[in-house]
Each structure stands twice: as structure tokens, then as C-alpha cells.
């Protein structure tokens, strides 16, 4: 069964599964990365996500390899550029990654522009389909933190300058659309507000935040922003263009070569279409915790990420803390659902309404994809069998009974991995 598609933005159709590449160049060698990319592409995935800081854990010696491997695959396999959707990210301020533009120190125009140019060079492409701010320039609670501390705020680059730099990249043809990542409701609304005020600034089309059975914080605030806010597509002839209100007319919100068609209101209702901001859900398996592998008597495979990089991957370990009893209890509760509906105790398979055997990983992916605001689930895989298991999740539709039990666990263990 082919991977379903989703219209993320005008002329930007993505597969509902997105292969994340942050293991490429660290856990996965170049040949292994090529094998996974081949399988994903041949399996119907056209959406690939990277970042300038990848792979993780981040090191000066490996920085940029994930983008480089992705670009070498595109070139070597002679993949037509319009057959794939490339997403990557600019790193926000960090006092640790001094090898990336000295920190990086901030998300000002110079840093964003240099990051875009470097990513294009590493991936050997002319443009990036979706360019994202990896995390905010300002202080926000992230990676396991839940409370905002006003005393930790510092001088930060304004969103106006960030959008100005991104608008220049759009105008230059370097990027097509923009998105944010690890954002808050406040941040999402500020990006929308600034883009509404300045006509030629691009509007975000996506939010890439964590979303899984152990982290549903998206639903508490950002979901409402994404549902009600968005942008208007003016349907003209046989194609769509993106527009916004300016005075009495309609002009492009993204850079479209002039002349611009200007239409006086009122417009026919079927000429305007509201497009919501979509969630790109990363860590649908909670960094492998929901697979159950870390709860084995031996602590799981020695080559599993949280075992290989124990003590070296602070961002992951702070959120997915294996010594946290609440996280463990919640994860085991979700596995109890698998046991209750089990048809094969070895695989802990459960059955959906079509009689299809479900593995724990597939339950997790299916749960994420059923969310009406999720465009795509961004997953990682270091082995072929992991990739194949996720691909099969596209044919899964969880029953109301299973969803009810999932929600019951969530009510007792709300978001242990925020």
C-alpha cells in the first residue's frame, strides 16, 4: 500500500511519513544511509528532513554529514528534484556548538543567510523546499522543561529580522516555504502576526514539534493556533497562488515573480481556500522508548541510541529519561494494551478493525497520523526492518476501543516526556 500524501502548501505535496536523517554520518555510514534512503523512496516516501547541526550527538568532526549524505544520494541516484521534498533547519543560539558560526550566537540575518547557503552547498541542490528554524532565538523551555522562567530571558533577535532574512531567501529562489520547530503558542502567533503586518514576509506553513503517546503538549495550545491561523490560497486558472489582504486588493504573501494579479473584493467563495498550519510530528516513537526495547532485562540493544550515547546526548536524555519511573510506568501501560489485544505474544501484536496485526511501533505511528493537524510523522531508522515496520503503519486505523484505552492512560500519565 503506497504511503498517503498530504498537501502541506500550494504545490508542495508530502508523504505522510518523513524520513529523518539525524543518524546519517554517526550511527549510519554512507552506504547504510543510501540503503535506507533507497528503501524509503521506493516505499513511497518523498519527504526527507535534515538540519545543519546533524548528525547527533553533535560534534565538530561530523557536523553537516547528514545533509551531505542526503545530497550525495540525490546526485548519485539521479533523483529528479521535483520527485522529492527537502526540509532542513538552521540552528538557533547555542553555547556548545562553537564550530557552527561561533556558537551559533544568534539567528540574525547574517547567520540565517550563511546557514542557507551552506546547506544548499552540502546538499548540492539549487533550492530547499521547507526551511525551518530549529529552535527559537529567544529563551523558551525545551527538551523536557515545562515551566517558563522569566529570569532566564536574554536579548534576542526579533522575529522581524528573522522573517526578513527568510523573505530574501525566498525572493532569491533559495527556499520555497518556511516553518518553525520546537516552538510555543506565543512564538507561532508572533510569526503569524509579523507576517500579517508586512506583506512580503513569508508565512509559516508548518510547526515541527515532538508528538507521541508520551508527549501530546501540542494539543494544549499550539493546535488551536494551527487550526485557526494559516493563509489564504487564491485559486486562479488551473493553479494556486498564495495571497494576503492589502487594502482593497490581494497580493502574494510569498515571492512570486511580477506582474501580480490584483483582485478587488468581494471574491467568489470558491476562489479562496484557507490552509491551516500543519504539525510535522517528530519523535513519534519517543526516541525508541515506545518500542519497548529499553525495558528488556538487559536494557535493550547495545547499539540503540540511548545506550550508545549514554551521557553524551543531553537534549534526548533530558526529555526521554529512562530512570524516570513515571515515563517507564506510562510506557509499560501502553504496552499493556498490546498484551490485552495480543494475537501473538512474542511480537505483542494487536489487531485493528481490518484484522491486521499491529506491532507497538505501528500503533505509535498510527496514533500520530490520525491527528487531523498532522501532515507527516518524522521518524528515524538505523536498520531496514525498522523502516519497513513504519511503512506498514500507513495501512493501520486504530479502533475506537484502542483509542479510548490510550486516552485513559494519557489521563493518568499526562505528557511525561514534554
Brief overview:
The chain is α/β, with parallel strands linked by helices. Helix content is 31%, strand content 20%. The strands form 4 sheets. It has an 8-stranded parallel barrel, surrounded by 5 helices.
Description:
It is globular and about 55 Å long. The protein has an eight-stranded parallel beta barrel, surrounded by five helices. A four-stranded antiparallel sheet has the order 11-10-9-12. The protein has twelve helices and 17 strands. The chain is α/β, with parallel strands linked by helices. It has one domain: NADP-dependent oxidoreductase domain (TIM Barrel).
Topology, pairings included?
Elements: E1 5-9, E2 12-15, E3 17-20, H1 30-42, E4 47-49, H2 65-76, E5 85-90, H3 109-123, E6 128-133, H4 159-171, E7 175-181, H5 185-197, E8 204-210, H6 222-228, E9 230-236, E10 239-246, E11 249-252, E12 272-276, E13 278-282, H7 305-308, H8 314-319, H9 325-340, E14 342-344, E15 349-351, E16 357-358, H10 360-369, E17 374-379, H11 384-392, H12 400-412
Parallel strand pairs: 3-4, 3-17, 4-5, 5-6, 6-7, 7-8, 8-13, 13-17
Antiparallel strand pairs: 1-2, 9-10, 9-12, 10-11, 14-15, 15-16
Helix pairs in contact: 1-11, 3-4, 9-12
Amino acid at each position: 500500500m503506497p504511503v498517503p500524501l498530504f498537501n502541506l502548501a500550494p504545490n508542495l505535496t508530502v508523504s505522510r511519513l518523513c524520513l529523518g536523517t539525524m543518524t546519517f554520518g554517526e550511527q549510519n555510514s554512507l552506504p547504510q544511509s543510501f540503503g535506507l534512503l533507497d528503501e524509503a523512496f521506493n516505499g513511497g516516501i518523498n519527504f526527507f528532513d535534515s538540519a545543519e547541526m546533524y548528525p547527533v550527538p553533535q560534534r565538530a568532526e561530523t557536523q553537516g554529514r547528514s545533509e551531505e549524505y542526503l545530497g550525495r544520494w540525490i546526485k548519485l541516484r539521479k533523483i529528479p528534484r521535483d520527485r522529492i521534498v527537502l526540509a532542513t533547519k538552521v540552528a538557533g543560539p547555542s553555547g556548545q556548538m562553537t564550530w557552527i558560526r561561533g556558537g551559533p550566537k544568534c539567528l540574525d540575518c547574517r547567520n540565517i543567510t550563511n546557514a542557507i547557503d551552506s546547506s544548499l552547498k552540502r546538499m548540492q541542490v539549487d533550492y530547499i523546499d521547507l526551511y525551518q528554524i530549529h529552535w527559537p532565538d529567544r529563551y523558551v523551555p525545551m527538551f523536557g522543561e515545562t515551566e517558563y522562567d522569566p529570569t532566564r530571558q536574554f536579548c534576542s533577535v526579533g522575529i522581524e529580522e528573522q522573517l526578513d532574512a527568510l523573505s530574501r531567501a525566498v525572493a532569491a529562489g533559495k527556499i520555497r516555504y518556511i516553518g518553525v520547530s520546537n516552538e510555543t503558542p506565543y512564538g507561532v502567533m508572533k510569526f503569524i502576526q509579523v507576517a500579517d503586518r508586512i506583506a512580503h514576509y513569508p508565512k509559516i506553513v508548518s510547526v515541527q514539534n515532538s508528538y507521541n503517546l508520551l508527549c501530546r503538549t501540542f494539543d494544549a495550545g499550539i493546535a488551536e493556533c494551527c487550526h485557526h491561523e494559516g493563509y489564504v490560497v487564491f485559486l486562479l486558472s488551473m493553479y494556486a497562488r498564495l495571497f494576503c489582504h492589502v487594502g482593497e486588493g490581494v497580493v502574494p504573501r510569498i515571492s512570486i515573480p511580477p506582474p501580480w494579479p490584483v483582485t478587488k473584493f468581494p471574491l467568489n467563495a470558491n476562489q479562496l481556500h484557507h490552509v491551516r498550519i500543519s504539525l510535522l510530528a517528530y519523535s513519534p516513537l519517543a526516541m525508541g522508548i515506545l518500542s519497548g526495547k529499553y525495558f528488556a532485562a538487559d536494557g535493550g540493544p547495545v547499539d540503540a541510541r540511548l545506550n550508545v550515547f549514554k551521557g553524551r546526548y543531553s537534549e534526548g536524555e533530558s526529555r526521554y529519561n529512562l530512570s524516570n519511573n513515571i515515563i517507564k510506568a506510562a510506557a509499560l501501560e501502553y504496552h499493556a494494551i498490546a498484551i490485552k489485544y495480543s494475537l501473538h505474544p512474542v511480537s505483542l501484536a494487536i489487531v485493528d478493525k481490518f484484522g491486521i496485526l499491529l506491532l507497538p511501533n505501528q500503533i505509535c505511528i498510527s496514533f500520530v497520523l490520525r491527528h487531523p493537524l498532522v501532515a507527516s510523522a518524522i521518524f528515524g531508522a538505523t536498520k531496514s526492518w525498522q523502516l519497513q515496520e513504519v511503512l506498514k503503519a500507513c495501512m493501520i486505523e486504530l479502533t475506537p476501543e484502542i483509542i479510548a484505552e490510550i486516552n485513559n492512560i494519557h489521563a493518568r500519565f499526562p505528557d511525561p516526556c514534554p
